[in-house]
Design goal:
2 strands, 117 residues, elongated, 5% strand, 2 domains, single chain, Diphtheria Toxin Repressor, domain 2
Length: 117
């Protein structure tokens, strides 16, 4: 679900009205619309999205908070991998995506301090 939130947030930032559509998410993530639809049902149930029939999706205040934090976590990890460990951008991006889901809050805070963020 975190990857979906991150994608929705990325699209949300590109869309002036903040309204996102399932087709947009599917294209962005390379997933089938049916998979995206099921994920949005879960995110709506968790209070992260507002989703009305035949309209687009909007992040709730809580969804925006979660998506921002997930995106920041990913960005910090990617930066560390590239700038400190000198990992190539493609590998750093892929590894940061995997690491962002399992990093503890304590490790994340220490990494932020280390990078000066």
């Amino acid at each position: 679900m975190e990857d979906y939130l991150k994608a929705i947030y990325r699209l949300h930032c590109q869309e002036p009205a903040g309204v996102i559509y399932i087709n947009d998410i599917a294209a962005d993530m390379g997933f089938h619309k049916s998979s995206v639809f099921r994920a949005t049902v879960v995110l709506k149930a968790k209070g992260s999205l507002i989703k009305e029939r035949y309209t687009g999706l909007l992040l709730t205040k809580e969804g925006l908070r979660q998506a921002t934090f997930i995106t920041q976590r990913y960005t910090i990890l990617q930066r560390f991998l590239q700038e400190v460990l000198q990992i190539d951008p493609g590998t750093a991006s892929q590894d940061a995506c995997g690491m962002e889901h399992g990093i503890s809050h304590r490790s994340y805070e220490s990494l932020c301090r280390f990078l000066g963020d």
